[in-house]
Write a structure and sequence with these properties.
single chain; 292 residues; alpha/beta; five-stranded mixed beta sheet; two-stranded parallel sheet; 13 helices; binds 7,8-dihydrobiopterin
């Protein structure tokens, strides 16, 4: 299963040498086998994403030349990215503490894991590696509205922590940046990094009958728990990337107050006010739940 992109525990061997947890990518030290893993994954997704990822994602992928050249050098990516949207990619050993993560985003630095999954674990990883972080996340950072949204999320994360609402804000990140779908001119497309970096979820999120696909509604999403260990039961659909920019302008504080007083919504649960893009059968997750 591809799901647990942001599981628990710490990263690869390196300990953070700097206060901001960044390390050198050490691009020269990747082995041919490690570059080969990237190429295998990138070629697989490259064949799958046209017609499934939104045009903005595909354009970012092209402009960054992430196709098949092996693990990219973050210095080169940052050059291209900075010119277009002012973002940089910095290397980290693995998951970093929330406040460190938010501080990077708030300053338009995307922290990316430097390690790559092993060849015998192509479809499984517990922690974001360089393929998930770079192939999945960086293409959308080439898009101006999305780039601003990510920065706003970083700033909002620090505020949410103070207000005791970090869990709620993290759900917005999850259901947009990681597992978001967008209604494009030619139908539903993916833009979330957790989908774009996973072969199985690329297919599941867009074509399986099982998951619900609902119109994105902010307060609803703030209340909705998510799965980190399997495909999502529900995906939320935005009408376009200006909608994310609008989110970035909203003052979340009064929303947190309201939402913290309301019950949490389970991943596959449906509410009377939900607007379906497509109602799911729920069959996939029902079959995997322990009987009785
Ligand atoms: N660290 N490297 C890294 N990547 C992430 O996506 C990440 C993280 N630390 C915290 C975090 N994500 C999330 O839990 C926050 O969005 C809440
Ligand atoms: Fe991610």
């Amino acid at each position: 299963m591809d799901a647990a992109k942001h599981g628990a525990a710490a990263g690869d061997a390196a300990r953070p040498g700097r206060a901001d947890w960044t390390v050198d990518q050490g691009w020269e030290s990747y082995t041919p086998e490690e570059h080969g893993v990237w190429r295998t994954l990138a070629e697989r997704q490259g064949g799958l994403l046209p017609g499934r990822a939104c045009d903005e994602f595909l354009q970012g992928l092209r402009l960054l030349d992430l196709g098949s050249g092996g693990i990219p050098d973050f210095r080169r990516l940052s050059e291209v990215l900075t010119r277009r949207t002012g973002w940089q990619v910095v290397a980290v050993p693995g998951l970093v503490p929330d406040e460190v993560f938010f501080d990077h985003l708030a300053h338009r630095r995307f922290p990316a894991g430097r390690f790559i999954r092993r060849p015998e674990e192509l479809d499984y990883l517990e922690e974001p590696d360089v393929f998930h972080d770079v192939y999945g996340h960086v293409p959308m950072l080439m898009h101006p509205a999305f780039a601003d949204y990510m920065q706003a999320y970083g700033a909002g994360g620090l505020r949410a922590r103070r207000l005791g609402a970090l869990e709620n804000l993290a759900r917005v990140y999850w259901y947009t940046v990681e597992f978001g779908l967008v209604e494009g001119p030619e139908g539903l497309r993916l833009y979330g990094a957790g989908i774009a970096s996973s072969r199985a979820e690329t297919i599941f999120a867009l074509t399986d009958d099982s998951p619900h696909r609902l119109r994105f509604a902010l307060e609803r999403v703030l209340r909705t728990r998510y799965r980190i260990d399997d495909f999502q039961e529900t995906y939320f659909v935005i009408p376009g990337f200006d909608a994310l920019l609008e989110l970035a302008r909203i003052d979340f504080a009064p929303l947190y107050e309201r939402v913290l007083a309301l019950p949490t919504i389970e991943p596959g649960e449906i509410l009377p006010e939900d607007i379906f893009v497509a109602r799911g059968t729920g069959a996939y997750h029902a079959a995997r739940r322990p009987a009785g």
